[in-house]
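Researcher: We plan to redesign the surface later, but first we want a full-length starting point. Tokens attached.
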């Protein structure tokens, strides 16, 4: 981890209780200082081994990328890859998504990627789904006006749940595809680690873009 300190913005949670942290703790990053420029910022939540964000960063040198992952050993792999490739426009946050407001200011991000977030089908775990209302409210505050969430998943029930959640939480859903790899969006698609695995089994990939609307949330 020490060898990747140049890429790691923050690690762990400031308090044991995440709710208390979100309510009481602020250590907002000045992203212009972090990246040394005023380029737009995009964020991946649950980046896993980080292949997607690394490819994004290499293709788009005029965009800054943040990759968030709760699991330390997984994000370490992501950072080691970025260091080995000498990629300059990506930084990593080893924190739970629940405490994003502690570190990133309102309107600081123009796009959020949710790639193959764990579907958590059990009703009792709904609040932990990364498209549950409490997360969409966090993303909505972080996104600039007209900002977007791009989601991909292999789970149709989770996809349908997410589309409903977007509509209830101040987002307009666009570009819905229920078979991404055989759609018009396939040519620009960057395949993630989980996506490669699911697609190799012949499973369809679901994708949608949710645009932050100006109006008040419907909930
Ligand atoms: C199924 S993996 C997908 C990894 C990668 N995006 C891909 O498509 O290959 C989901 C990742 O989200 C992370 N994750 C789940 N809940 C999280 C949370 N609340 N905050 C941050 N990361 C989370 C998990 O640790 C895991 O690495």
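Model: Full-length starting sequence:
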């Amino acid at each position: 981890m020490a060898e990747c300190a140049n890429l790691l913005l923050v690690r762990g949670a400031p308090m044991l209780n995440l709710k208390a942290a979100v309510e009481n703790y602020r250590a907002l990053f000045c992203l212009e200082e972090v990246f040394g420029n005023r380029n737009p910022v995009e964020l991946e939540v649950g980046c896993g081994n980080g292949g997607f964000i690394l490819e994004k960063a290499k293709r788009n040198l005029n965009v800054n990328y943040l990759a968030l992952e709760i699991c330390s050993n997984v994000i370490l792999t992501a950072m080691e890859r970025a260091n080995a490739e000498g990629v300059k426009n990506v930084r990593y946050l080893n924190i739970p998504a629940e405490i994003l407001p502690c570190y990133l200011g309102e309107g600081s991000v123009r796009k959020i990627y949710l790639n193959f977030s764990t579907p958590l089908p059990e009703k009792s775990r709904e609040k932990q789904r990364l498209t549950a209302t409490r997360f969409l409210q966090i993303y909505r505050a972080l996104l600039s006006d007209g900002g977007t969430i791009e989601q991909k998943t292999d789970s149709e029930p989770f996809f349908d749940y997410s589309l409903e959640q977007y509509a209830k939480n101040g987002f307009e859903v666009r570009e819905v595809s229920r078979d991404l790899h055989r759609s018009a969006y396939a040519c620009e698609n960057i395949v993630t680690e989980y996506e490669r695995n699911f697609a190799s089994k012949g499973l369809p990939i679901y994708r949608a873009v949710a645009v932050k609307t100006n109006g008040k949330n419907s909930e």
